[in-house]
Design brief:
Four copies of one chain form a homotetramer. Helices cover 45% and strands 23% of the residues of chain A. Chain A is of the alpha+beta class. In chain A, α13 runs antiparallel to α16. The interface between C and D is large, with 159 and 159 residues.
Chain lengths: 409, 409, 409, 409
């Protein structure tokens, strides 16, 4: 099997995005498609993408602005945004009625979250709290043997202040909370845990940890360091992991609500008993199939809010773990979610892009600890979604809702 | 702690999205923000989102079109798209040079994938294959006791044809491949595995499985069925799971490339030996921290391609698992990735939305099995990204690249 | 750090165990200890083991018999055995009242299982079933690249009968149920699943799979095989694994009982509500800490029965996974356990050793499918133990029982 | 299905084991078997166990001694013990040449470990270290809601000294190292980590934690405590868990050795390259099948040493996790194992029973930190076994060795 010859030379990476570079890329891409079509004897227009849907006027005008977030820029993709609310929250950092923008192309999703949110609001609102914050980077250090690993860790404990200074010198907002060594014979991982201010902080902790590693490599460590890496693939960055589930990565937030029996019936069209019965089956399903935690569809809320508000959507991979629990309180239903790995910020990343900044502003986050408030809103939205889907599945309405909203359109 | 009173009554869900409903929502949301600002004694404009960034003219014009994919529609969020390529593939379903659109706001990401893609192209291209396809739904059936579960499964084996007919009657493109029962005492899960044509097929299999369940509930099953659910939270839908890792969910694709030693040095600024040394540390990091599989950052490619091409971004949660492996072939480097849970389609979901359809068209997928080809392109892009990040981490360039592209902008 | 010189030359492995070889080993070992003591200036007797506790007369007399199960034989270690019962079972393979011998040195353990067993007996007995049997070996085959893996699996499908014949030619009792390939790029694992008659069958399936592999290596496979291994460390042999949890390895058995509310109070000193409340906390604890399944202490019953009856105690590592579930039936309590990886036999391994054979005989297993009956007894014993410990923990008696029986002796 | 009537009334639990109670139990059990045989029309002797193999004279004589470790005592089961060595260790706590007693009925096992040990000795010995010690209990506290959990943890931080005093007042040897709260909404688990002196310490930490809990329940905690449990099934006690893998439970020990290329060939009949090639396949097998860590057969060494030396064999379930790694050092082979959850003691449990005490004494453990030395010996034995089995599998000798020693006997 040989790859067919192709006249297309590919795109050179260019740093600075402008209207002109974007259009130049389109020209190359269109030529290529036309060429392919010609070779295949097909009409060219049938194959070609419509540049105006991606390289529209506003996207071309803002090319330089977008170019700070991406390379080889050709324009923007547009995702529909729906709003749910009031999401009534009575939390440590978020307090009040919030509209939540969700970007998705899955029909029925926003309607389902909205139903859950309305029910929670009518129940008096959702308690929320950020339980811990701490973004992890885990550099790795390789030695010749076990004894050297031990001596290295011993030496490290004598350099705590210097290590902190080296890391924190790189950042105005980040603080190094702790360094926890994990030794596997001749390899030592250091779990470096940081607070990151109002940012999600992935770059911040990479740069700080790099400085920490360089300090170690240059210092008078009594054992020879064979190799070091700023990340030993241990931190769970963009990966669901047991470490993240256990110790948290980013912000760990929890949310809960007590729904009166009557509201379960009227608002959710189910009963406390039926929802608990399904919960038992769903919990066992999680365990049997080997999931990290037990929940129904955190990922839907996470992806939709992350995309709408300029967060890193790849972090859905690590954020979409945690626990949904339900218990009876008399005839009423107590529901809770806990998400140990929420990765959100109100500055940095894509939060400053035009539509994303608007979506953030639309929520009306508090001036103090806005990222913590956002994490609580994310957890509360997940709670609303869990309640709604469990109600639908327990009462046998799940498929009908999807068929109605998704198929018969 | 009591939630503060709020004059905002929240959004009623409305079915049919139009220019007018979108603007009506904005009016409500703006009023709310203004009210909050007034109560807080702040100038109103400072808080308010800019509606024109979301509810721009094109988004308002296409409101009905977007409304088929979302409820409570208020406009669109715009994510920057960059292109990498040539991604030279020599696969079972994809064959040729492909540009790949990636939507992200993480600076340096597209540049890194582009570097990996270019290196693979110069190495002669990437082998790819879809190894299996099969989207899972797992309904659950609850009985009084263990013996009834056993009798139920025995009875099921006598109804194989009828079950298939019930499921397949609901769909033109889906086929029921197998039904595998998993018994846990009085609860029986049925792992129902389907092909879904060119669609990702999540709705398709839900509807088919619902029909299958209703057939069972109505049939002459000799034991009383206490409860049934169309999904027992066992399928790994939007959740990383061991089941998905082991048996696949959606499309399982693999990609590999052999990179000559010289190209490792010139194209990736590392060496085969250094990359393998890092690979050992990274692999151990994955295992120690309890990840599903072992890889560096599949999630980045998955999120970026899923968003650009109208796939369900929430599926990143389940897709971002799998394996990256490297081995020496003499001085050359053999690299491979396997992703068991790719969820992509070329029809359905958000693939028909304007910019997403263009992004799909831009790739020039083959007419035959385009979704399989797309799955192979996704795997090949992941491979390019793994190679690039491992090279950067092994050679100590990772932080510098991020600082340069992300910070000094 | 240098290892101190030692005059002890170590033990040469000898094949045939006899009274004389055992005594010769003791002589060497005693000389060594005396020498160490002399060098340390200590009295020799204080350090020395008492040979008569291990190399007692019966152990010396039966040296050749034991020697078939072990090398470098020096005698036997004695573990105390307690009996619980009646374990009243109403199962597919086991039916009647069984005494169960348990070997352990953990005080309170036998008493706790006995309490659970008595309560279940008074509740009318335990339902049990073996849900599946299938012992796995997973040979691995390494190729040059992805395409060769694909061609290999394609070729395999044409050799199904020959593969089965090659495997089954090595055994009178084993049957090859299925071969399921798992491809990761250039490596192919074959999940080979066997029934093993009344034996646990670990050796049986190793030998059969070796023959299967040798057939493949010698046959006309159209792609070159770089390497093959009889076990790719994929089968979960003596390791807790998701594969075992999902698909079973060995015998998968389930057991359940319905305990009237009154008996929960009188027999278990707890209440249905309290036990369910603890069950929710314990289930969450399992999930949060990343266990395979969710149960309290299967390992205690497994280790105690495996040791008493001559099973392979190392298999506790893989057997001690699964699920314990409880639900209310009105005021009564329904309890269930499912263990997917029970490794037991009534022939082979240590089952023919003198005391182990007596322990097996003591149970009075049925003549038909005795190993299946034994697996059901194991599951039922686990159930009894789960009920007893959950009752103790829910009612706050756990520590007291341990203190009383373990400390105040 | 009804359980058949049985005249057997079962065993009443009796506290104090004596010669007479043991014989009384035998009488009951024998009557039962005879009765069953009579009812089945079979000769009675064929069914009956031989009491003299279990209730031998020494076991009857020592009934009271054994009775401190077990209830319903009927005698002892005898497991054959083989010895490997010299296990040459150059460790932090163990240093010298050690014989290691292993109790197993799996033929070929002792021979294989002995081969590995001899090779390591000829390579100059094994480096070992205990990297951390800390036995965990994790009580759980249940509140009405999220906010109360938060207030509880805040309050706890003000009671650190009192909590430590309450726990440590119950034990002479245990020390409370740390209390780490893990909040899941309204449930709080406290990871209480202890050192346990020379004991394994499971009972010790249960009793200490019970006291800690009772202090909390009686103190002036500002929020109402709904329920508390001394163990929330979070600690990984007798269960493989991610928590144990990550943070250690009991003693975490590591061992490594550098084997010259020539010795790999002569002593292990393989090559460095072949062993590394198998290592890659085995590592992937571990990951694909969802094991906790990656190793070949730790369980074999653990079960054999635990049983021989009076440890709790049920702990094999949690101990048999960890990592085996190999890397080339030029042509030589560096091998390492790390076991984070070794549960051993030199006092307590079954260590004082006659034959077990002898087996412990036989090793000649140092007077200082003997349990740490034992943990290092366990790790070193695991290393020897991993090296031997990997060599056998990589060179294709695995099946032959098993067939020879296990079958042709």
């Amino acid at each position: 099997m040989a790859v067919s010859a192709s006249s297309w030379q590919g795109l050179p990476p260019r740093r600075r995005a402008t209207r002109d570079t974007a259009l130049a890329y389109w020209s190359q891409l269109t030529d290529r498609n036309d060429g392919d079509a010609r070779r295949a004897g097909q009409p060219q227009t049938a194959l070609g993408p419509d540049p105006t849907t991606i390289a529209d006027e506003a996207s071309l005008r803002d090319a330089e602005r977008y170019g700070a977030n991406i390379e080889n820029y050709i324009g923007t993709v547009k995702l529909p945004v729906g709003v749910i609310g009031p999401l009534r929250i009575n939390g440590v950092n978020a307090s009040g009625d919030y509209p939540v923008p969700m970007a998705t192309s899955e029909a029925a999703l926003v309607a389902s979250y909205h139903r859950g949110a309305s029910t929670c609001a009518r129940a008096g609102g959702i308690q929320t709290a950020v339980l811990s914050t701490g973004l992890i980077r885990t550099p790795a250090f390789v030695f010749d043997n076990l004894m050297q690993s031990g001596l290295f860790v011993e030496w490290l404990t004598t350099r705590e202040d210097a290590l902190r200074q080296a890391a924190e010198a790189t950042t105005r907002h980040g603080r190094l909370l702790s360094i926890e060594p994990a030794i596997d014979n001749n390899i030592v991982y250091l779990v470096c845990r940081y607070t990151t201010g109002d940012a999600a902080g992935q770059n911040m902790v990479t740069i700080a940890t790099d400085a920490l590693c360089r300090y170690i490599a240059a210092a008078d460590c009594p054992v020879p360091l064979r190799r070091w890496y700023v990340e030993g693939n241990f931190s769970g960055d963009k990966k669901a992991s047991s470490l993240g589930l256990l110790t948290g990565r980013g912000r760990k937030a929890s949310a809960s609500v007590l729904i009166p029996a009557d509201l379960v019936r009227r608002g959710l069209k189910s009963t406390t008993e039926e929802m608990l019965a399904y919960g038992r089956v769903a919990n066992l399903g999680s365990l049997l199939s080997g999931q990290h935690g037990a929940q129904a569809h955190f990922a839907n809320a996470l992806a939709a809010i992350y995309i709408a508000t300029g967060q890193d959507a790849a972090c859905v991979a690590e954020s979409a773990v945690g626990f949904t629990r339900m218990e009876a309180r008399g005839d009423d239903l107590y529901c809770a979610v806990t998400l140990p790995n929420i990765l959100v910020g109100t500055v940095g990343g894509g939060t400053g892009l035009p539509s994303q900044a608007s979506a953030l502003a639309l929520m009306g986050l508090p001036a103090e600890n806005p990222a913590d408030a956002l994490a609580e809103i994310v957890a509360a939205t997940c709670l609303a979604g869990e309640i709604s889907i469990v109600a639908a599945l327990s009462a046998g309405h799940f498929t009908r809702a999807h068929r109605k909203l998704a198929r018969e359109r």
